[in-house]
Amino acid sequence: xxxxxxxxxxxxxxxxxxxxxxxxxxxxxxxxxxxxxxxxxxxxxxxxxxxxxxxxxxxxxxxxxxxxxxxxxxxxxxxxxxxxxxxxxxxxxxxxxxxxxxxxxxxxxxxxxxxxxxxxxxxxxxxxxxxxxxxxxxxxxxxxxxxxxxxxxxxxxxxxxxxxxxxxxxxxxxxxxxxxxxxxxxxxxxxxxxxxxxxxxxxxxxxxxxxxxxxxxxxxxxxxxxxxxxxxxxxxxxxxxxxxxxxxxxxxxxxxxxxxxxxxxxxxxxxxxxxxxxxxxxxxxxxxxxxxxxxxxxxxxxxxxxxxxxxxxxxxxxxxxxxxxxxxxxxxxxxxxxxxxxxxxxxxxxxxxxxxxxxxxxxxxxxxxxxxxxxxxxxxxxxxxxxxxxxxxxxxxxxxxxxxxxxxxxxxxxxxxxxxxxxxxxxxxxxxxxxxxxxxxxxxxxxxxxxxxxxxxxxxxxxxxxxxxxxxxxxxxxxxxxxxxxxxxxxxxxxxxxxxxxxxxxxxxxxxxxxxxxxxxxxxxxxxxxxxxxxxxxxxxxxxxxxxxxxxxxxxxxxxxxxxxxxxxxxxxxxxxxxxxxxxxxxxxxxxxxxxxxxxxxxxxxxxxxxxxxxxxxxxxxxxxxxxxxxxxxxxxxx
Length: 639
Hints:
The chain is of the alpha+beta class. It contains 15 helices and 23 strands. Helix 7 packs parallel to helix 12 and helix 14 runs antiparallel to helix 15. It starts with a helix and ends with a helix.
């Protein structure tokens, strides 16, 4: 065969291989579109079993219309992140369709300027903004409909909320597939709802946790003076039950015994219980009673709770600002509970990482109670219980560390209680009560239940601040929308609990993915140890100062001369001794901080050595070992 023929055969073979390679890539892109390997620690990018359950439960076709302005954004550099994210959203929706048994119909629409599609996107409430100098509008949202004119929308897909993507889409489909939403009743003496704020003289937004609940449930307000609970309510959330009448407590009692579900939030020191005259009379506000209890029911149902005790925890205590010009201090009354303090076996805490509470109480099972008491949130053993008055009149958070003596036991902050409950009113309904200027309410005509006929399941949390925005989320405006940025899982835990009490658990496995924190636990432990040494040394300096002042006062009182402004030699010597001692102690304080920085830098150096040097070296040695063994095998085979 001539050289030219060989070259022709070679070129032809290369051409065939190239065609086969392109064809293979095309087939792979079609067959494995959307497939991916999730190597993240918490499987953040895998479709959860809860999502699969929701998709499998769809009993009628749902239409999904993904609006993405592909043509408008094609040549706009600033919109590149949105173009990349659009592929992520489209792949996720395609994967959803594969689990929906043909009941999800996805259409991707490019709403060109001045088109009917653009008008439809605007009419559906999707958010658009100018994409270029020509004023063309950029859309990136989703509209979902069902067969009975139900509609759910995602007004705009924000790439910064990618961790929420699966949950947002699953929640949209879950809501659209529900015939009716579960009913949640909220009885609260705190300003959790929409209303007028006398301090700012403006309408206040509801707490974020309530807004999230309204997306999944039908939320109804129940007056703290109610004498009966609507039987249509599936779950009653009682927040800060302060000064409830026996009539209202009896209504709650009978609601639970008839099969209603209950979530109770009590508090020995509710920070959000701010008196109306707090600004004009701060002194009275400081002495105002901020505790709440539902002792008549809780004690009957086997739960021990003291509304005059607050739990402190040195390990979980958060650092807070101590004021302008002062270093942050650890507030052992504001706790950031990590996974070690969560009951990982309970579905409401699945995959959650951080829950913050503030000045909370603690719960326990009564010794003789015939109920199942399951702790959900607990402290560490580096904790203690103190009188709520100590926290109530506190001016400096660091003062809570004075005399801190860990009890060596853990305290339960939230618990699930199961059992067949008896009524707290064995003699029947209490006499009707009347408020001032009103006639007593008519006695209830409902049949009194002395005990439940089926096992009950209630949630008890010894903190109401867990619900407040400041402990877990921040709200910000984005393109006219109020976006929520969560830095803790408080809202997830509350909504999970309501979901679970209503009997729905499919969304629970998804919601916890919203917050993914991996703190440097070793660094945090070093900081806590340094703070403990710093606190002890600082207290020593304070004691030295007080002792010096006492001695100077004694020396001044014992003088018999007529010029008190001139220091005696004894006073000068005492003052010089104190100044030397203060200099020594301050050097110790600086040394404590320096040692902390050195420990953290040393830890960081070792991590760099391991990640940058050791791991590549091990990989290289492994590769060389494999190559050497293969070479040995070839040599042995050639002998």
